[in-house]
Amino acid sequence: MNIKCYHFLPILLSFIFGMWYVHFKNKNIEIPNLDPIKYEFDWLRLYNLMEEDYFKQNQMSLNFRYFLPRTYFFIPNHMKQFYQEPLYNEDLLDPVYGLNQTFTEKKIQFSQAIGRNVLKNSRFSSFMKKQLDNNGYDILMFQKQVDLNKNILQNNRFLKAFCINNKIYSSIDDKIINQFFQNEDSAVLINRILEIQKYLSKFIIMKNRRCINFNMFEIEILFTQQEGKYKRPYVDNIFNVKKVQTNNIDISKLVEINISKNYIQNDTKYKIFSYDYDFRLKRIIHQCVSNYKYHYQWIKQQADLLYLEPICDQNSNKLAEVNKIYRRSDILLMKKLDRFILIQNLTIYNFLMNSDIVNNKLHFYQIAHQLDQENRKYDFSLSKFLPKTYAFNLSSNNYTQQEEEFMNLLESEMWISKPLDQLGGKGIKVYQNSSQIKEHIKKIKQESTNQTEEDQQVIVQRYIQNPLLVNKKKFDIRSYVIVVSTDPYIVYFLNGYVRLTINDYNKNDTDLLTHLVNTNIQKKHPQFNSKKDDSHWELHKFESALKQQYNMTDEDIQIKIYNQMKKASAYLFKGLEQYFNVFTANFQIFGLDFMFDEDFNQYFIEVNEIPQLLGQTSTHRNVCPEIVSQQLDSSLYANGQILKGEEIDMKVLQNKCKNCDLLINQEQIFYVNEINAKKKD
Predict the structure, then answer these.
(1) Structural domain boundaries of the chain?
(2) What is the 3-state secondary structure (H, E, C) of 353-370?
(3) Helix H or strand E encompassing 71
């Protein structure tokens, strides 16, 4: 076929035009050299430094969330090679977060004029997603809008900080000081301003080695006033670091900021803005364990929570990925607080550090005796309500002084041995007399080689031979203590249910099913499936049995049963406060087991730091969801107030835990009386 050359002319012209267009278009796109060392400091770099510092510092120290509203950055794809993306930044393009909220759009360069206000809706998110691949688009900063009309500094909006010979000075002057000394919060507020200037100086001047001769940067600070209650300093803008002449500065009129002093701590009034916490959905995540079945049901009913898929795989190879998910969560429910998990400062989580000390049965009894020695101001002794207890190390041939004391006991009584850290009745043995258990101990110790990998440590307790019975069954009462928050320290008591044996009680019976009420033990009973609802009672059924069997009134039950449990719980958890590490926002529920003898003497059996809030019986299905609901409602409200820097309204808190009894409110303890001065004498 004869093909003429001019047939290719349109194709050739199109190709030339296309190459020219691409060249022309790219020629007008100037991508700056954004090498981290050479490129100018800006808001995004500052924000990343502050976020990094936020995860490293002490939780009670100042951080950028105290003086910035929620901040996002739009980073086009072609710029991501030069910038690290902040942790929560993907929320900007997510239509769920901050829906129908107004944000202020700014440039990331310091001292740039404030841009326009934009409404974050689905159209905004869709449009910005399309711009990710637009090489002509700049990096933008979006901040939750602050009402600028509430600026109370009037004309004194610009506060300057100077770096002179490695010292930081503030230009805060008499006019500003006089203005704020009109109210009682003046000194605290001024302190906060100085702290913010110092904090920003650390990054902008000190970390960048710009404190040479005289360097200056300015911070424009606005003060918002929320609900007429607190004035909170808000950093609206930062001006570029620039050199100034010596003769332009009168150092005598400046206030030196001690750069080496710690930042303000426990300054809860001036923490993050309430709108920073309230305006968005909170991410909630839990570990992949069955115990969170009722937690999940509660979560589905909450309109302001976004449920994230549970974490089921936590092997070491994926720890970094798991940590990232945990750090992005606002509320984290964990079965155990792993020290390798990096929790962010403002995540609310359901575990107290060091709470496991009560799980170890020996530690629990040792702490109880120690509290009695320390807390002599209370008309109460927890040791009186604990069975006589001895500790044994069965892996050693030798006998400690306490072990010898037990071996020399003459009385013949029933005893029970328990492993120190086992749950659910595992490893528990009942002995009909002391000779029986002594022979068992001697045999194990004689066979010991002193080279056991793990010490076989157990406690031996005097068995309660005459327990209070209902319908001829032995029982205990599972109750709960909720530590709603650690700072302030608020503790509630919540009644649970009654656990019973399926067999009638007979102290001479050697079957563990007759002696142990633990659910895991009773499950082994051949009739458990048909009688499981008889092994767990709700309290109204228990109270009816007491009235019928022992002619008790409601007042009798309250005084002889419930008040005794509350008194012991309040006393114990007031003493445990010193062991719990204080974090910004955390809470925990504990399971407590009590028994009574036939004379209504109370016995405190144990504390469980990870109580099972699930079960197969109708009692579990009726009681546990309500316990979970009240625990989460009260704890998340209290810790939300803490994160916002607002006071906890105790009436609101009580309403959220309506069946709870307040045990401790900071320094105030209920149900336990203090010994008056005359009684001490």
Answers:
(1) 70-145, 150-275, 281-349, 365-386+466-678, 388-463
(2) CCHHHHCCHHHHHHHHHH
(3) strand 71-74
pLDDT tens, residue by residue, 270-325 = 444 454 566 566 788 888 878 888 998 898 888 778 888 887 766 656 777 777 77
Closest CA to 235 of 432, 362, 65, 37: 65
Please choose, from the candidates 432, 435, 438, 428, the residue with its C-alpha nearest in 3D space to the C-alpha of residue 414: 432
Q: Which of 119-133, 446-460, 478-492, 650-664 is least confident? A: 446-460
Arithmetic mean of pLDDT over the chain: 79
- Tell me the pLDDT band of 677, cut-offs 50, 70 and 90: very low
Cis peptide before 488 (omega within 30 of 0): yes
Asked if 70-145 and 388-463 have one fold, the answer is: yes
CATH label, 70-145, candidates 3.10.110, 3.30.1490, 3.30.1050, 2.40.160: 3.30.1490
- Rounded Cα–Cα distance for residues 63 and 55 (Å): 10
User: How far apart (Å, rounded) are the C-alpha atoms in residues 359 and 354?
Assistant: 10
Which tokens sit at 572? 């114990």
- For residue 680, the model assigns a pLDDT of 41
Specify burial of residue 667 (Cβ count, 10 A radius: 0-12, 13-18, 19+). Answer: exposed
Phi-psi region of 533 (alpha: psi -120 to 50; beta: other; left: phi over 0): alpha
Question: With respect to CATH, is domain 388-463 assigned 3.40.1000?
Answer: no
The confidence band for 508, taking pLDDT boundaries of 50, 70 and 90, is: very high
What is the widest separation between alpha-carbon atoms in the chain? Answer: 125
Sequence-ordered strand ranges (E) for 538-677: 588-596, 602-608, 661-665, 668-669
Contact 166, 209 (CB under 8 A): no
407's tokens: 């071996």
- What would the DSSP string read from start to end of 218-282? EEEEEEEEETTTEEEEEEEEE---EE--GGG--GGGSEEE-TTSPPP-S-GGGSS-HHHHHSSPE
For 365-386+466-678, CATH number out of 3.40.50.10190, 3.20.20.450, 3.10.25.10, 3.30.470.20 equals: 3.30.470.20
- Tell me what pLDDT residue 649 has: 92
CB 202 within 8 Å of CB 241: no
Q: Which pLDDT band holds residue 543 (cuts at 50, 70, 90)? A: very high
